[in-house]
Fold this sequence. Notes:
Layout: H1 3-19, H2 21-34, H3 41-44, H4 48-62, H5 73-92, H6 97-117, H7 121-148, E1 155-159, E2 162-165, H8 174-182, H9 185-194, H10 198-218, H11 221-238, H12 243-263, H13 266-273, H14 282-300, H15 322-353, H16 364-385, H17 393-417, H18 425-441
Antiparallel strand pairs: 1-2
Helix pairs in contact: 1-2, 1-4, 2-4, 2-6, 2-7, 5-6, 5-15, 6-17, 7-9, 7-10, 8-10, 8-11, 9-10, 9-16, 11-12, 11-16, 14-15, 15-16, 15-17, 16-17
Amino acid sequence: xxxxIAVTYIISTIIIALVSPFYxxxxxxxxxxxxxxxxxxxxxxQPTYVYMCLACIVGFIIHxxxxxxxxxxxxxxxxxxxxxxxxxxxxMAPFTLIAQLKFLFSSIILYYFATRCLDxxxxxxxxxxxxxxISVSLGYEATSSYLTDPNSPFAYMxxxxxxxxxxxxxxxxxxxxGALMVMPISFVFxxxxxxxxxxxxxxxxxxxxxxxFATGLTYSRTCMAIVGIMxxxxxxxxxxxxxxxxxxxxxxxxxxxxxxxxVIPGPLQxxxxxxxNYNEDESFQGRTRAWEQGFHMVRSYPxxxxxxxxxxxxxxxxxxxxxxxxxxxxxLPGIFFxxxxxxxAFKINLRIIEIPEHDPRYNRRNRIxxxxxxxxxxxxxxxxxxxxxxxxxxxxxxxxxxxAMANLVTVQHKExxxxxxxxxxxxxxxxAGRRKKAAGKNLEVTQPVIESEAPEKPRFPQAPV
Length: 465
């Protein structure tokens, strides 16, 4: 990738965001995945993300009449979380207040953008397609170098017997890069089900196969487990009410996953199966020691925590658990607001998934979206449980996509039950004259033609979420 491509992308994002909030959001999320600042030192010294984010904010203000004004269940909990983090920083680490709030707002604003502008299935499809395309491109860049260049910068070799694929900058970590590869797989599955073209379905299958291959090259046990977890979540949510059908589907998926595990290459299989020996794994032992330290912090500071991003001042190792990290740094009220926002994002999708087929709000395509987004958020929460993702943009993007399903259902319900505008008087007179003329020519036309009737009052005037 050359510098001019990065500069063109950034400038285009700023311009497009002013014209179209949705496409501005898509490009902004794309920039988070690519991370130009990790590739070019000149961009690292400039707040390019802030410029793009401000352009999106201005675009949202300009086009506010076209965006959703509805409030969503997770909204109030994220607002309370930000407020509690602010108070905690004022009390525990006031000198870092501006820098930390700048980082938190630049992440959480993505939740607001997603919930307000994603209001149709095609928009979700475009968002998914862009995320998949970027992830595949980054994976191809790393894979081609990793497999062909002995001195590849995308290879991590802590010892001669271990070689794992990594990315650039922030992704120069096998687990982080593995998450970049594995999370879009649920989006690929969603597009596969929504597509009516077998050509595009073949493209999606190829993309999923490549992302799975790239995930395997990272040798990340967490990311390999996420594949199975997302598959099991989709299987569990797919059936409707019948416990036996759900059990059969889960059994088939489980057997398939076990069968897949037996045919993957030996080193990869051994790496994954080492999860069973977690008691003897040094990496896992280091994580548990960090978690213990986090619980010690929250016992010492149960109300306000130690302050956002202040973990390193109390413990030398990374937390390796986003939820323990949020609890230690924001206190018990902070982790409550944090988990409540995630819970209500799940609840929105579960309400949509549970809509019965005879309900006028039922939409098969909405249900597919909700199932795949739920699996995606579950997968990321599993990854966050072993990673340091408490305040990164991804948790806010994924909860925002889930909450945006409420916006989608509301817009669809409004469109389906909004009466047509009344006809103009001049047009009615013309129609009446034509009817009178027709009646004169044909004596059988004795009843007036009913042009329109009042629409049937909907049984469910409110959106489900």
